[in-house]
Design goal:
heterodimer; A: six-stranded mixed sheet; globular; B: alpha/beta; abc type-2 transporter like fold; five-stranded mixed sheet; 5 strands
Amino acid sequence: MTDSYAIDVHGLTKRFGQKTAVDHVDIAVPKGEVWGFLGPNGSGKTTTIRMLCGLLHADEGEGTCLGYDLRSQPDDIKRNVGYMTQRFSFWEDLSIRENLEFVARVYEVPDGGMRVKDTIARLGLEHRQTQLAGELSGGWKQRLALAACMLHSPKLLLLDEPTSGVDPEARRDFWEEIHALSETGITVLVSTHYMDEAERCDRIVYILNGRLIARGTVQEVIAQSGLITFIVEGEGVRRLIAALRKAPGVEYVAFFGAVLHVSGHDRAALERALAPVRAQGAFRIFEAQPSLEDVFIHLQEQAE
Amino acid sequence: MKSLSWMRFSAVLVKEFIQMRRDPLTFAMMVGVPLIQLTLFGYAINTNPKHLPAAISINDPGVFARSLVAALSNSSYFDIIKTTNSPKVAREMLDRGEVIFAIEIPVNFSRDIVRGSPPDLLIETDATDPAAGAYALAAVNGLSATALRDDLVGPLAARARTAAPFNVVTHLLYNPESITQYNIVPGLLGVILTMTMTLITSMAVTRERERGTLENLLAMPATPLEVMLGKIIPYVFVGAIQVILVLIAAWLVFSVPMLGSFALLWLTLGLFIVCNLAVGYTASTLAETQIQAMQMSFFFFLPSIMLSGFMFPFAGMPHWAQAIGQVLPLTHFLRIVRGIMLKGNGFVEIWPDVWPLILFMFAAGTVALLRFRRTLD
């Protein structure tokens, strides 16, 4: 079975003192897929990724990365995994070229010089290769970091919030790159806060307080939630929020895209809550598929 | 807006107190440094050192010799750790730095005193540290008039009334003119290396941690040994440059003699540099920030400079201070470098101080390697 999964871990647990940061997480990512790793801040995404690439010892649990045992073969995992940290972690006082050359040498990349040259050319950074990495903009740092992670031709990429603080255009380019890499058979696990990025993944897992509470395709996750969402549209709709939140049967009200999302599990109760609004006649009300964001906020509120 | 608002001022004040409390190492330093200095200066440092190790060669055993030995011991300046009948043995102990004085009671000592032709009591002293023996030598000169008073009775009573019954002849070995620079400049070599080598390397890993690059480095397949060697060796070269600078200055500016072998000096310098780098690297793995790393290396540097015999004579310190001093690499290096440069010592003479350095290097290196975590746990 292990052969077909790039990541196959069970019961992964990590405690920091009294706090259980990651609580019996099972993830099995088939080779070649792009998986999104979602969850609020502090939910355990970074800790999970760090355990997968051997930066943290798991207190409990077992499994394999690329067929290598998490506990006994951390060196093999390190050699074959590309890990991109949340915060830019290349050497700001080294130039672009020097950073790449360092990576090539540490991983003992065959024909490293050529790989570095090719990478710089592919990034279009030939004329800036002697520039210090610290002088690059956020978007360029991110591109450099991804290129550096790919230098040793890893078979699995672990990306920890790679697009935080990056502008939309750079984000789009970044995802095109991810999909192109996926085409070549590389498996990707990418953590993110962005819903649109989640939708670019083959499958997503959602972690909350250290526990994986949802997994599947975006459609599956939405369907599993059993959430019903009504959209209320019209001028001044924002003023309805306070009243609707108090209404029985309404679990969650959110305003985005200039419309109101009113969600709950009980259709009849939702209809009753919305009846007074409907009576005003000023707003258009219709049922719609809940967005991923609705589902996640719902999951989060349910947990609290 | 008022130029001084109590509210705003107290806001800054309170914030500063809170931050001070959250930084235990700084607090430890504020309390620890005065305590260490008080202890060292108050108890360990002694500018009038007593109980200095001495070897005495007695070539004319007899009542006068016995009285003289007793008088030397009673003066409390000398601890006679070796009594021999061979001046050569005493001199060799001086070469190895085991004693500061080699005292020779010559042949026919008693006969010459009885005859009234004062014999010469030869005191050879290690003047590589001129300050160490100065008071003791002064005490011996005072002693010569009184040491034998109780023995010069009856028919010899007349001898006691004349000037000293024997002469004290002192030889300041290795540094006959008592030039302080001869002592200080080679010592500075060790002090400079201790300070810079520990300080620079103490930041090596901490800097990576502080900048977040450690996470990246640990995710790569480099082993702790590769990382440690790769980080330490560049600073060995920095140390070598410092050594060259100090040695050129010692030679051109201060005319410090170089009697021993350069090869031996470089060999021991290399050993000493690695010892300090290992200490710095260990601090580096313990500290969270570069500031903490600096503070830790300061805690190492302070006792090094005070208890090694650089500033104050080692032999004059109490036993507990000497015991701490024996652990510090600088103590042994100072003896080695002064021995090679001023005494022309070879490997055999310096070996007693070389093996402690080797031991220290392996101990500190092992701690550093064990402390270096391959994970972020």
